[in-house]
Description:
Helix content is 88%, strand content 0%. Helix 1 packs parallel to helix 3. By secondary structure, it is mainly α. The longest helix has 30 residues, at 33-62. The chain is built from three helices and no strands. It has a domain at 1-7 and 43-93. It starts with a helix and ends with a helix.
Amino acid sequence: MQRQEMIEKLHGRLHDWNQEIDKLEAKANVASANAKAEYRESIEHLRARKEQAKTRIDELQNASDEAWDDIKQGAEQALTSLKEAYDSAKQKF
């Protein structure tokens, strides 16, 4: 896969995750007061993971050819971590 294609794919995945987080936030807004606090904590954790993934993708976009493979792997791992955190949070909802 070409470099720009990979970056676009990762940005697309990040965008999809952002939409999923927004859906969870909408559910949290209608939850009971007790559940709302727990949901908010999960959502904040997801948003932090999303920002980490975005940072990795931005690093990838600006990486030299020599650093490309290492940073690419880090970006993919960050998105995997975001998915795992999302799956965990979704179970709570």
